[in-house]
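Late entry, evening session. Most of the bench is empty. Finally got around to the prediction I had been postponing all week. Sequence below, unchanged from the version circulated by S.P.
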Amino acid sequence: MIVYLHGFNSSPASGKARLLGEYMASIGRQADYICPALPNSPRAAIAAVEALLAQAAPAAVTLIGSSLGGFYATWLAEQHGCKAVLVNPAVHAHLLLRGALGPQTNWHSGEKWVLTEAHLAELAALDVARISRPERYLLLAQSGDEVLDYRDAVAYYAGARQIIEDGGNHGFAGFERHYPTLLDF
């Protein structure tokens, strides 16, 4: 099973989530792909994914997390022993999102909500100081990410398999080129 975790203010309607779902359907594996709509509360987002994970053995699950979804995927992989593919991940989300405190709008649904200190505290509680088993992770990062410094992820996921590309953007331009690599992992 592949569980795709979207990023901050995103949804299952994001480009990467939709295209990966279409690819999985094209190879006859649509039943193996899940992309839940994650709540704005980090605690609730983790609870929603853990409910999905309870339906499968950890060895049968690969998490794919983009940006904030990568932060969640890291915590979940550490807790449940599953593999995680991280796409331009937010390494320490509670620090990164401090500058975004206040009113927010989901890019896909238009839902309006407020990012608060309580959300940051929930993120801080999920922060993994150091990954325990680098072989469990695959990092995909692009140096042209305009939101995150890719070098933070390179250092944090040291020892993990890493695919680092020059240029690109936060949405990871050309993500579809890596579908075979994701499935092989």
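Two things to note before I forget:
Residues 138 and 181 are 10 Å apart (CA to CA).
The longest strand covers residues 137-142.
Will write this up properly tomorrow.
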